[in-house]
Amino acid sequence: MALTVNPEHRIGVFVDIQNLYHSAKHLYGGRVNYKEILKTAVAGRRLVRTLAYVVTSDPQTGEDAFFEALEKEGMELRVKELQTFSSGAKKADWDVGMAVDAIRLAPGLDVIILFTGDGDFIPLVEYLKSGMGKIVEVVAFGRTSSGKLREKVDRFIDIEAIPKAIFKTEKSRKRATIKPKNKIQK
Fold first, then answer.
1. Is the pLDDT of residue 99 over 60?
2. pLDDT grade, residue 162 (50/70/90)?
3. 110: closest CA among 137, 139, 134?
4. Domain that holds residue 99
5. What is the domain count for the chain?
6. Domain with 45 in it: what CATH number?
7. 160 within some domain
């Protein structure tokens, strides 16, 4: 659906950091450039609030520096600790918290932008659109996002189509420059 971008629209952005982090790592061995994708998503409209949902696991990983970088980009962090169960299973999602915040803040917004490809957000999208009359957009990696989620929203932005949206990590650069060994001809 073609959507006319209105510069007067009040925008709220809700960023599922775990979802985008794992997609960028899996697809590119890289990291997301949140500044670039935020600029593309907002598209000159009135940004009211940006909430980023993060999970802490181990400060030794440098996550504190990452969290500070997100805050410097104007993102308000929602933080929770990684849950580890007695079985060894781990859980690190913010789906319910993100949905509650989107519904809670929706009355003061015209457009809700979800940075996630997670199909679990379909009921939220449907409620925001039909129950609250809001425009809902999604920003995610097309190859790892739910097709049904993309069908439900008013606008889908594929991160893979945004220039400078992915930072290559040193490890991914090294992999790209390693040449395969020559095969011995028989």
1. yes
2. very high
3. 134
4. 10-169
5. 1
6. 3.40.50.1010
7. yes
Residue pair 12/48 in contact by the 8 Å Cβ criterion: yes
Whole-model pTM: value is 0.84
Q: How far is 186 from 181, CA to CA, in rounded Å?
A: 15
Q: Which residue has the higher pLDDT, 102 or 19?
A: 102
Long-range CB contact pairs, 166-170, < 8 A, 24+ = 166/24, 166/28, 166/30, 166/31, 166/32, 166/33, 167/30, 167/31, 167/32, 167/33, 168/28, 168/29, 168/30, 169/29, 169/30, 169/31
- Mean pLDDT confidence for 75-82: 88
Asked if residue 146 belongs to a domain, the reply is yes
Flag whether 38 is in a domain. Answer: yes
Cβ neighbourhood burial of 1 (10 Å; 0-12, 13-18, 19+): exposed
pLDDT, tens only, 125-145: 999 999 999 999 999 999 999
- Name the residue type at position 29: G
